[in-house]
What we know:
The chain has helices spanning about 10-20, 90-105, 120-130, 150-155, 160-170, 180-200, 205-215, 220-225, 265-270, 275-285, 310-315, 335-360, and strands at about 1-5, 45-50, 55-60, 60-65, 75-80, 80, 110-115, 130-135, 140-145, 175-180, 230-235, 240-250, 255-260, 290-295, 320-325, 325-330. It is α+β, with helices and mostly antiparallel strands. The strands form 3 sheets. Strands 10-11-12-13-14-9-15 form a 7-stranded mixed sheet. It has a 5-stranded mixed sheet with strand order 4-5-7-16-8, with helices on one face. The radius of gyration is 21 Å and the shape is globular.
Amino acid sequence: MEARIIEDRLLWNRFVAASPQCHITQTYEWPEHADASARGDASPRLGVIDEHGRLVAAMLLVRSKAQGVRAPFFYAPRGPICADPSSPALPLLVAAAKREARKRGAFLIRAEPNVPQDDTLWPKALRGLGFRPTSHGIYPRGAWVTDISGSEEQILANMSASWRRYIRAGEKNGVRIRIGAGESDLDAFYRLLMETGRRDGFYIYPKALFRDMLDHYSTERAARDGTAEMKLMLAEHEGELVGALTVAVLGKWAWYLHGASSERPEHRKLRPNHPLQWQAMRWAKARGADFYDWRSIPDVLKPGEDLYGVYLYKRGFGGYEHRVMPTHDLVLRPEVYWPYTAAVSARRALREWRRRRGARATPDGGGAAAGGGAE
């Protein structure tokens, strides 16, 4: 077996799509809509090729920035991918990752494998290769997943009665769902997303990121390069945009990526996001997906926690909680890593203190959506 940089997009994406650890964040194209410093060769795609020429392990390393640190670090979002962590392929892959990261001046490799939290083989294998678990994760460990492998009648039957009623009421109330196309639809989506971000208090990425994602995961590129296919879906009522989302599918998995909704009372009464999500599920199912990943849910599932209201909304569509194993760090430069993690811990403790203090002062305040990111 040999570890090397993989430049064949089709080979890479087909391997990711077929893996039980399949995730869109390990596709070849993922860094191409990130910060400019992470694009192209700056984010190596490392793989292990066996004696038959097959790709048997892979790890996308996204070049990342850490607040207050000049040196970069490399992040494997929902990676590495390897069928058997006890096989010789994983040590070869990690050794190659260390060489590439050190060559590029990195102080850290951070991995968040798409492996269930109760797995016992992966933590042991990573510890044996020098990784250490950390609470400084980038993506939330928990997600809500709806099984869409059955018939549409079965999927609907697993939802709450209210959610089924809101879905069926959509067409009756004049809500129309369509797939977006072109710059004008992207503009309308982004305006609504900005409105949603201001209302719910979460960061909105520049519009160029969404344009790039729709381009990198277009139907044409999915067919040519084996990558994910992504669509912008719009919910309209009497010619006005009342809700929108982006959804992507790769292999047996689909992901709800971004969502926006109108805050106008007459629009909220229509509950357009229920039929919008249902049509996204139907679109993903038609493309071979068996699972619809809603992504982030709170670490603690109880009222008052951030994202709890979002969790209740997702739970209404039926499904199950999916949590992955903790984040693991491979320290390359201890003199940089330890002061950095100490500073991150202090900042997080201060934020949490302020959040809890604010929650006590305003007990009726609503929750806010949040995204992961490096500090």
